[in-house]
Design brief:
There is one protein chain. This protein is of the alpha/beta class. The chain contains nine helices and 13 strands. Helix 4 packs parallel to helix 7 and helix 5 runs parallel beside helix 6. The longest helix is centred in the middle third of the chain and has 18 residues.
């Protein structure tokens, strides 16, 4: 695979890969763990606090709570409520809530990947951030019994937009995801919410377009008599792997009930249900579980020449 990344980024990957995982594995849990990469997290919410087994902050900017680009331990994912409750940073709490709603019987490792300015706005993040974050997850998967990763962030960079089917250019993230796959850990990404954009017809966002990842699209189910396709979800008949609920009730920072919408929600739903299916089928490999999930998905209708199928967990478990 061609490496199209600068030497500086390659050096960063090497540095992160060399970061030792804790030698003491006594904290390894029996309960399966989902690693969630997102903005920040309100760990004071009781239903969330009881499921968090680790927090880590991995940024491109020195804005972790300790004033550095890396922090591991309690408080690493936190922000003042004045920032945490804004639309810039409430996403992480919403996504953890969505995952736990879909599967209450899992633990969470939260990886904060979005930095903040003094004004409370988001700092830039992207390829380098994800490479470093997923490298940390791979180094620590045994310690925390991480069986899956859910990252609800999508972007159209560094994807090269071409008219051919091969519009997703290789990056240094591809082999990192492949390494996790080789360890039996899938990485779930959202297909994106730009489906109504004419320029995005038959294309999904990066990094979901990476073939080694599991791309998740969205289906409308909330308050409907029957499931319907989401018009905002991105589609690619060759790359979208699974479909999950796109609209769910969630908990916002401050333990305030609300709703979240988007394929970012679908990612958490499918990743959490994957963890539950893995617990029900412990002898199945990653490939066997994903194949089972696909075959246990219920056909809905077609859009952009792609048949949408909503995953049915009970069908997968009970056959």
């Amino acid at each position: 695979m061609k490496k199209l990344i600068t030497m500086a980024l390659a050096a960063t990957l090497i540095a992160m890969t060399s970061m030792p995982a804790e030698a003491n594995l006594k904290t390894k849990t029996v309960t399966p763990t989902l690693a969630i990469l997102d903005t920040a997290l309100d760990t004071s919410i009781p239903s969330i606090k009881s499921r968090i087994v680790a927090e880590v902050c991995i940024l491109d900017w020195p804005s972790c709570p300790n004033g550095k680009t890396f922090m591991e331990g309690p408080g690493a994912s936190s922000l003042p409520m004045s920032m945490l409750s804004t639309s810039s940073f409430n996403h992480g709490t919403q996504m953890v809530s969505a995952a736990l709603l879909s599967n209450p019987n899992l633990n969470i490792v939260f990886v904060r990947i979005v930095g903040n300015t003094n004004r409370g706005t988001q700092q830039t993040y992207g390829l380098k951030t994800l490479v470093n974050a997923l490298t940390w997850v791979n180094n620590n998967r045994a310690k925390y019994n991480i069986v899956a990763v859910a990252s609800s962030h999508a972007t159209n960079t560094p994807v090269i937009r071409m008219k051919t089917a091969n519009y997703c250019s290789p990056t240094l993230l591809d082999p990192v995801i492949l390494n996790l796959n080789s360890s039996g850990v899938p990485v779930f990404f959202p297909s994106g919410n730009s489906g109504l954009n004419p320029g995005m017809k038959d294309k999904i966002e990066w990094p979901a377009c990476i073939k080694q990842s599991v791309a998740v699209g969205g289906v409308e189910t909330l308050n409907l008599d029957r499931p319907q396709i989401s018009l905002t979800s991105n589609y690619d008949k060759n790359l979208v792997d699974l479909w999950g609920e796109v609209h769910l009730p969630i908990i916002n920072p401050g333990n305030i009930p609300g709703y979240a919408y988007g394929t970012s929600v679908s990612v958490q739903v499918i990743a959490a249900k994957y963890v539950q299916l893995k617990s029900a089928k412990p002898t199945y490999t990653l490939d066997q579980l994903i194949t089972l999930m696909k075959s246990s998905s219920v056909p809905l209708e077609k859009i952009n020449n792609q048949e949408v199928k909503l995953f049915d967990l009970l069908k997968a478990i009970n056959g």
